[in-house]
From TrEMBL:
Domain PABS: 46-297
tRNA-binding listed as a keyword: no
Keyword Nucleotidyltransferase: no
Protein name: Spermine synthase-like isoform X1
Species annotation: Iris pallida
Lineage: Eukaryota, Viridiplantae, Streptophyta, Embryophyta, Tracheophyta
Alphabetical GO biological process terms: spermidine biosynthetic process
Residues of the active site: 216 (proton acceptor)
A GO-annotated cellular component: cytosol
Length: 349
């Protein structure tokens, strides 16, 4: 992700020819120490947010270049105002206004969404699976407490039940306050909220209940690591009907090839229909892209490459309060086209 200042302003001049004015953001960056008054939060230094990971212990300090999911990198954006900071039983929650991407939600110092580019993630993780099967009726969302996936599912009039299992109620409450354009999904009468552990919820689900399951999970570190293991995928497959589909957040092709290989290998063992990797562009995620696992259980064949339920033909999909900003059938097909390097990496699978 990239942050930028507001352009040229008054101040120091550089060079003897043309007397270029140094932008205020550059003058701040050149300062030997961050301004103490701008340090509004542990991950906001001199008005800039950096995706970070705090060390444990009483004197926790921010390790900007030591996140295990993208070691050696920090992704930053300009902060205009801190809107909320709090801590639930599970994680730290931060909401701020950025200069380019609007309001931003971060959990444990890691960006989850921004107002400007959330459409690229929410629309793709939802419509890639739901447009690949005819008339989906029962859908389960794992995670997704911001409500964006629910908002997108609501475009499908064939759906009559939407279960969502989110472990952190505070995330939902914060998003309802600061991201109402996302949490509008919770207002759909088809939605049934379950607050608790996703793995336990799936273990208790009846066999063959869902037409589609969408896993909108955080990065697989700490407690979320369970969500990329074989037992979790087996409980998902058990809860899907024959020919049912899974769409699972699956990290970046630029940073996590080995993790993607492991997840795909597991899914080939578990899902006897079809298994694919798809991807989309999200500027504020590390490396600017995020991937999805698309899997189907044994049953009616599912052709993820050619949507059988195109969104352009769904009247309700185009009449909702918010127009589609990113997904369409052409992008659906393109999302499953893989770069040559990734084809080589995944070729043995």
């Amino acid at each position: 992700m990239g942050g930028s200042g507001s352009g040229a302003g008054s101040g120091s001049e550089v060079g003897g020819h043309g007397a270029e004015v140094v932008p205020s953001c550059c003058r701040k960056a050149m300062a030997s120490a961050p301004e103490s008054e701008a340090r509004q939060h542990a991950t906001v230094v001199s008005g800039w947010f950096s995706e970070a990971r705090s060390s444990s212990g009483g004197d926790a300090k921010v390790l900007y270049y030591n996140n295990p999911m993208w070691p050696g990198e920090a992704h930053s954006m300009k902060v205009e105002n801190i809107l909320y900071k709090g801590k639930s039983e599970y994680q730290e929650i931060l909401v701020f206004e950025s200069s380019i991407y609007g309001k931003v939600l971060a959990l444990d110092g890691i960006i989850q969404l921004t107002e400007k580019d959330e459409c690229a993630y929410q629309e793709m993780i939802t419509h890639l699976p739901l447009c690949s099967i005819p008339s989906p009726k029962k859908v389960l969302v794992i995670g997704g407490g911001d409500g964006g996936v629910l908002r997108e599912i609501s475009r499908h009039s064939s759906v009559d039940l939407i279960d969502i299992c989110e472990i952190d109620m505070l995330v939902i409450e914060v998003c309802k306050k600061f991201f109402p354009e996302l949490t509008v999904g919770f207002e759909d009468p088809r939605v049934h909220l379950h607050v608790g552990d996703a793995a336990e919820f799936l273990r208790n689900a009846q066999v063959g209940t869902y037409d589609a399951i969408i896993v909108d999970s955080s990065d697989p570190i700490g407690p979320a690591e369970e969500l990329v293991k074989k037992p979790f995928f087996e409980t998902i497959a058990r809860a899907l009907r024959p020919g049912g589909v899974l769409c699972n957040q699956a990290e970046s092709m630029w940073l996590h090839t080995h993790l993607i290989q492991d997840m795909l290998s597991t899914c080939f063992e578990v899902f006897k229909g079809s298994v694919h990797y798809a991807w989309t562009s999200v500027p504020t995620y590390p490396s600017g892209v995020i991937g999805f696992l698309l899997c189907s259980t044994d049953g009616a064949p599912v052709d993820f490459l050619n949507p059988i339920n195109p969104i352009e033909k769904l009247d309700e999909a185009l009449k909702t309060r918010r127009e589609l900003r990113f997904y369409n059938s052409e992008l659906h097909k393109a999302a499953l086209a893989l770069p040559s390097f990734l084809k080589r990496e995944l070729g043995h699978l």
